[in-house]
Specification:
Length: 305
């Protein structure tokens, strides 16, 4: 039920209850009238809660403040490839965050780099670098660079975002964008600040991503919370499924599952997803200079010094 539908529902029900109370007041006892007033109050209360929740969800990717990451943070991951039940170390991925000034604004310069091991290159060589300059005050991207080398695929695209004008200027042209649009890397850091406590398992958290000169309306589906034990660490986690855009490696749909730490850091600790051939698992192996250090005591994972 969207906000307009709820408002219409509220208006119709309140009008009906008022009509019942006015028309049939002579036939009701005092206790009956009290009961109707209680029902009216409960309907108002319930609808207000739903309205508040819907508004919060619809604006979830606008105006979030960063409380999860900081300049100097570095996260290291190991990527495993599986086919027919056998897991093979396929590569590594690193995410880093550094505070810089870009176009006169304080910005987080975040980088995500993924590279296959040489022993795996014969099967599927990967050497990808993603960069995003994120405005620290809005957590919206200012600039995005995608430099992809995967097997025989080569993609390079640089994008400058003008959120006020709702335009993105890429290597290939000028494109319209909606409010609060993210790039694929800034979306990770933005999503780490989602307040999952206001959602129920199965709820969708919608947002928009600009990729390959197109806007994609996608979502994250909240699954719930669970304790996660891996060979690299033990964590209390939040579990969700992002809607994927089909590309050179990933299948589209809700096939990926992500576990992030259930604390202020919301660090991704495990990602599982099928790919076009087989599937992969991505484990957090090292972390450095995280923002909320006290929470890391519960990770049972040795930090990198």
């Amino acid at each position: 039920m969207n906000i307009n539908s709820m408002r219409l529902f509220l208006h119709r029900n309140m009008r009906l209850l008022n009509q019942i109370r006015t028309t049939y007041k002579p036939f009701f006892h005092q206790d009956d009238l009290k009961f109707i007033l209680r029902v009216k109050f409960l309907i108002i209360f319930f609808i207000c809660i739903q309205l508040e929740k819907s508004i919060a969800q619809s604006n979830n990717f606008c105006g979030i403040k960063n409380t999860s990451s900081q300049s100097g943070e570095r996260l290291q991951y190991k990527v495993y490839y599986t086919l027919a039940g056998a897991y093979i170390g396929a590569g590594e991925a690193t995410f880093s965050n550094h505070l810089e000034t870009y176009q006169g604004r304080a910005a987080y310069h975040v980088m995500g780099a993924g590279k296959s091991f040489k022993s795996y290159d014969w099967f599927y060589k990967v050497n990808d670098v993603y960069e995003s300059y994120i405005d620290t005050s809005t957590m919206l991207p200012i600039k995005f660079v995608r430099d992809v080398n995967e097997r025989n695929t080569r993609i390079y695209n640089s994008v400058i975002f003008n959120h006020a004008a709702k335009k993105a200027v890429s290597t290939n042209g000028v494109f319209k964008i909606p409010s609060c649009v993210q790039d694929v890397l800034s979306a990770i850091y933005y999503a780490r600040n989602i307040n999952f406590s206001v959602y129920q398992p199965g709820d969708k958290i919608p947002f928009s991503i600009f990729l390959d000169d197109q806007v994609f309306d996608i979502f994250v589906r909240y699954i719930g919370k669970e304790k996660l034990v891996t060979k690299y660490g033990t964590y209390q986690t939040i579990k969700f499924k992002p809607l994927l855009i089909e590309g050179t490696i990933f299948k589209g749909g809700e096939n990926m599952t992500v576990w992030v730490t259930d604390d202020e850091n919301k660090i991704p600790v495990l990602v599982e997803t099928p790919i076009l051939i087989g599937s992969i698992k991505v484990y957090l192996t090292e972390y450095k200079n995280i923002r909320n250090k006290a929470a890391a005591i519960l990770y049972h994972l040795k930090p990198k010094t």
